[in-house]
Write a structure and sequence with these properties.
alpha+beta, RNA_pol_sigma-70_dom, DNA binding, RNA_pol_sigma70_r4_t2, Butyryl-CoA Dehydrogenase, subunit A, domain 3, 2 domains, Nuclear Transport Factor 2, Chain: A, sigma factor activity, 51% helix
Length: 295
């Protein structure tokens, strides 16, 4: 933001900035890209004829959404050549009272949710988010995307069908989620494979993202025995050198793991019916720069 901006201009943008960031992050899945989009939106806002704008919020949301679509299209080619599975950059909070634990970020931003959104086209993703998460009407969405209302309805319907196929059947209370992870963490610390397996659904899946920067699984792992074995193996190979710390990962209870005191991964867990059904492990160091690197 520049020194030439008026106090009113700065105040309007500052008030809307958390919402703009939450839109951009859900669209792009990385903090740096989201921040760049928000900065580009600011530059356009600063250079616009604001007297002619009927609604500052509508104008800025539309600009941010369009910028995010353009950037996501540009990033898709890069993701096609990405080594292994691409997971969003996690927002990790070791202190639950940080500003990012606001409702704007805590709602519908879980790793599991963003993982499903990766299967949508940029415009489908924008239409779905605007309707289902940010509660815009179809006329607004049509204006944002330059499409007819009918086309937007079809996009949202298609996207919703795909999301519902992988969405949890019901939300698990966070306290239950946290208690389960505490027990899982204690079992993982000592390599208790049987205890870990008992906390997982039989068809649990593990998705890991190393991005070619560190060793990671190039395939999705399935099955409680196999996934529990991964945690057992790490502890077996590094006895008394693996440590876990509780954290909020994308608004939900999660874990951060250290090996020899150095950050190794951030982990998000999808829980249903009292069992872990999916684990998302981000190991790519480029996506962990916002997490304390040493325990």
């Amino acid at each position: 933001m520049t020194d030439t901006a008026s106090p009113a201009e700065l105040a309007t943008f500052a008030a809307l900035r958390p919402r703009l960031f939450s839109i951009a992050y859900r669209m792009l899945g990385t903090r740096a890209d989201a921040e760049d989009v928000v900065q580009d939106a600011w530059l356009r806002w600063h250079g616009s004829d604001q007297q002619a704008v009927q609604s500052s919020e509508a104008w800025l949301v539309t600009v941010t959404t369009r910028l995010a679509i353009d950037r996501l299209r540009a990033r898709m080619a890069e993701r096609e050549s990405y080594v292994g599975w691409w997971l969003p950059e996690p927002i990790v909070e070791l202190d639950e009272h940080t500003p990012e634990s606001s409702a704007e970020l805590a709602s519908e931003v879980s790793m599991a949710f963003l993982w499903v959104l990766e299967r949508l086209s940029p415009e489908e993703r924008a239409a779905f988010l605007m309707r289902q998460v940010f509660d815009h009407d179809y006329a607004d969405i049509a204006g944002m995307l330059g499409k007819s209302e009918s086309a937007c309805r079809q996009m949202v319907h298609r996207a919703q069908e795909r999301v519902q196929q992988q969405k949890p059947r019901f939300e698990v209370p966070k306290e239950q989620h946290r208690e389960l992870l505490v027990r899982f963490m204690e079992a993982a610390k000592v390599g208790d494979r049987a205890a870990m397996k008992a906390m997982m659904d039989g068809d649990v899946q593990l998705v890991a993202d190393g991005g070619g920067k560190v060793n990671s699984f190039l395939h999705i792992l399935h099955g409680a025995g196999r996934v529990a074995g991964v945690y057992w193996s790490l502890e077996h190979q590094n006895p008394n050198r693996v440590a876990y710390r509780q954290a909020r990962v994308n608004g939900a209870p999660g874990l951060v793991r250290y090996v020899d005191g150095k950050l190794e991964s951030a982990q998000s867990f999808q829980v249903e019916d009292g069992r872990i059904v999916a684990i998302f492990i981000v190991r790519n160091p480029d996506k962990l720069t916002g997490v304390p690197q040493f325990i």
